[in-house]
Amino acid sequence: MIKKFSHTFVICAYKECKYLEDCVLSLKNQVQSSKIIMVTSTDNSFIRSICSKYNIKLYVRKGKSDIQDDWNFGYNKAKSDLVTIVHQDDVYDKYYLKYIMKYFTKHSDSSFVCTDYYILKKGKYYCDLNCKIKAFLKFFLRFSLFNKIKFFKVLSLAFGNSINCPSVTYNRLLLGDKDIFTSNLKFSLDWDTFLKLAKKDGRLGYIPKKLISFRIHNGSTTVSFIKSNIRYYEDVIMFSKVWPKFIVKFIMLFYTKANNVYGDVLDE
User: Could you tell me if residue 200 is left (phi over 0), alpha (psi between -120 and 50 degrees) or otherwise beta?
Assistant: First the structure.
């Protein structure tokens, strides 16, 4: 008998994001239906109005706002087999969930499944060199023969965070109900999590289709971490988990150029 998985989109909302409704609509418009919930640690009337308008259950986390705590809170509020942690400013292709469910049906031993993505900046969708490099780094994850082998799983993350975080759907049947984000890092906590999972049993699934649009804007968390140099220092920490120091220094000479995708946004 073919396993039928249940799924939940968990939207992590923060303050008053003007792109939140676009994100919600992209989830509502999926060709394959799913449960949608929203979590926040910054409860406000704007977020509540969006939830009320689209009949979405809201869960409020008490305490100081924190990315990792918010993600774990949302992950644990989803009681389904599969869960996608959604960033409030991204947009999902209407076929995203259809492809995800199809993959898990075929490979139920996957810890998570990710996809490729478009960049969405100032209303324009495109795929730059950075997108293409990340797709190349995930090459071996395309094949079921390799994406369950530790060496190839780690290799896909050894030269940078090749996985677009909001494109990932996690398998709670394998990962369990406990917190899955357990990093000491603030920005690279997703990369750190993926690397930890790569070293454990479980396939890392990859669908080489652009099924999410990753929005870049001046108010995004990524931009704030780049401006504060936190991203740079944490990326050094992550590379050091795989490579000796002299190789890390060499990699960083090229890796920092990845920030060019933010270009004029950083100058705003």
Answer: beta
